[in-house]
Design brief:
Elements (H helix, E strand, L loop, with lengths): L52 H14 L9 E5 L7 H11 L7 E7 L3 H6 L9 H11 L3 E5 L9 H12 L2 E5 L14 H8 L4
Parallel strand pairs: 1-2, 1-4, 2-3
Length: about 200
Amino acid sequence: VGYIAASIKSIQDVEVGDTVTNAERPAKAALPGYKKSQPVVFCGIYPLDGSKFGDLKDAIMKLQLNDASLIFEPDTSVALGFFDGLHRGHAAVLLAAVEGRRKGLVPAVFTFSASPQRELCGRGAPRLMTVSQKERALGAFGFELLYRVDFSALMEMEADAFVREVLAGAFRARRVCCGFNYRFGKGGSAGCAELSRLCAPYG
């Protein structure tokens, strides 16, 4: 029995059952590890003191090291937009999403890898920021998660499906922030009013 000292920044970077090998003499194949368990009990956990959300999150993540059957999926506060250049309007949306951290939500950004206008029309304004510049700028705001997808993968998705499957389902969003002119859904059929209405049933 022994231990390994590693510069792991996040507990989520490793899982119980991971194979440890030597870089100079690597293993031919990784061990199968543990099969992920299928959850049968679900619950939401909140601290009595709202300022202790961070401590609760850290405690649950540490508990995962000792219990591989524990699956922790944090709720998120999501900012929607392309966010190229990060002008004042962008900053207002991003800061509103980051405010969700006070309620124990993980700040996240949902954006596209290329401008929707360019994807739809084949033209559009030139980019003001590279991908790496945008990632650094968003990180400086305090975002922990960045979801960057191809617009073509969602351009045929109806507005209600986007809210149900992407925001409420995949991202577990409990707070959604966007600009006044944000459009989503097939053909840009929905805007802020529709987003508010469609999100209401999911809290």
